[in-house]
Design goal:
By secondary structure, the chain is mainly alpha-helical. The chain is 46% helix and 9% strand. It is built from 9 helices and 3 strands; from the N terminus they run H-H-E-E-E-H-H-H-H-H-H-H. It has a 3-stranded antiparallel β-sheet. Helix 3 packs across helix 9. The chain starts with a helix and ends with a helix. The N terminus is likely disordered.
């Protein structure tokens, strides 16, 4: 399924480029063509709804939507409906961290123990004393994905609307044996950026979202 979605996204982006190059002056035709593709994707899939934002070389932009924002009430999805950002959040965490590194508030080669070592759970974290900030950012820390843990899946299913604290997410990995030593392997894991966010909060004294918003969005 993931490969199918990835293929569609690539296909859709190629369609945007081709259409934009051949008929940039006809925005309406481009909107129609892309809406048809969104409708086809939605008809073939089982997802509730989706949105698409397009910016043309001319600076013109438009948004499209398909499906429902609420299946039960059959509320149509709108182009400006808020959507989960997903892994885009990692770029905000990395950019914020790099600014703090440039300012000398975080060291790229520092062990994370320098910032989180006094936390009561720290020594139970896999590879705790060996992980560096760099290894968090390039995912070579050995901290695997908490969201793939069976207990997390059960807890999330039982309480899908819960707002999770970073320490609650990290707790699903405590006392586990890491799959590799810090710096000796690689694994795509959100946990790295959860911990990076905790370090950002520790050195700034502010919530990560507030710090990222101030530095990157409200400029």
């Amino acid at each position: 399924m993931r490969k199918a979605i990835s293929f569609f996204i690539v296909y859709l982006l190629l369609a945007v480029v081709v259409q934009a190059q051949t008929s940039a002056s006809n925005k309406s035709a481009l909107e129609t063509a892309l809406q048809l593709k969104l409708d086809e994707w939605h008809k073939a899939g089982s997802f509730p709804g989706a949105t698409l934002g397009v910016v043309l070389a001319s600076g013109e932009s438009f948004g499209l939507a398909v499906g429902f924002s609420d299946r039960q009430t059959k509320t149509p999805m709108k182009p400006n409906d808020p959507m989960l950002a997903g892994s885009v959040g990692k770029t905000f965490a990395a950019a914020t961290a790099l600014q703090l590194i440039k300012e000398g508030k975080i060291g790229l080669e520092d062990k994370i123990e320098k910032y989180l070592g006094r936390e009561p759970w720290f020594e139970r974290l896999p590879n705790a004393k060996e992980i560096t900030v760099r290894q968090l950012m390039n995912r070579s820390s050995g901290l695997v994905r908490y969201e793939f843990k069976e207990q997390f899946t059960k807890d999330l299913t039982a309480n899908p609307d819960k707002g999770w604290k970073p320490t609650e997410l990290v707790a699903y990995l405590l006392d586990e044996k890491p799959p590799f030593e810090a710096g000796k392997g690689w694994d795509y894991s959100d946990t790295n950026y959860i911990v990076l966010g905790m370090i950002i909060e520790k050195v700034t004294g502010k919530k990560f979202y507030d710090e990222a918003t101030k530095r990157l969005l409200n400029r």
